[in-house]
């Protein structure tokens, strides 16, 4: 699963190959097919695990009762970490770019990742702005999620992590993020 995640983060879902994955982990392709009969099954499992792991991490951050600005610092650091790891993308972000090519089960898992992230951002924004309307918080959470994903994509494409950092600073200066 770890090798599959890294492969997709680096090259996208379309480049995911049972043969290459088996070679990377030192097993036969049939062994990978045994656990994941189709590429869609593997892709869905990768996205599901990525979402579950990310969700647990985000919940842990909230449980530590950090201030909204600190929570956002830690959140944007997650996306930055992927870039600093051989210029990789968020697994579900890169899969989203290939949405038309994804089997329905993978799409469902990618959608779940977005929903988990937006819901978490809404919870952080409630702490920052308890009097804001639910609609305003929801809209802003979606905007933050999209902005961070976009910053990651542009930085990756330019192979310049500094673009990501500058984008995040600009989002903060504009008041988008706490």
UniProtKB/TrEMBL annotation:
- Kindly give the SUPFAM superfamilies that the UniProt entry links to this protein: Homeodomain-like (SSF46689), Tetracyclin repressor-like, C-terminal domain (SSF48498)
Listed Gene3D superfamilies: Tetracycline Repressor, domain 2
Q: Which residues bind DNA?
A: 17-36
One Pfam family for this entry, by name? Answer: TetR_N
**The HTH tetR-type domain, residue ranges:** 1-54
Annotated keywords: DNA-binding, Transcription, Transcription regulation
Query: What is the protein's name according to its record?
Result: TetR/AcrR family transcriptional regulator
Q: Does the keyword Nucleotide-binding apply?
A: no
Source domain of life:
Bacteria
A GO molecular function term, named singly, is:
DNA binding
Q: Does the keyword Membrane apply?
A: no
Q: Which organism is it from?
A: Acidisoma silvae
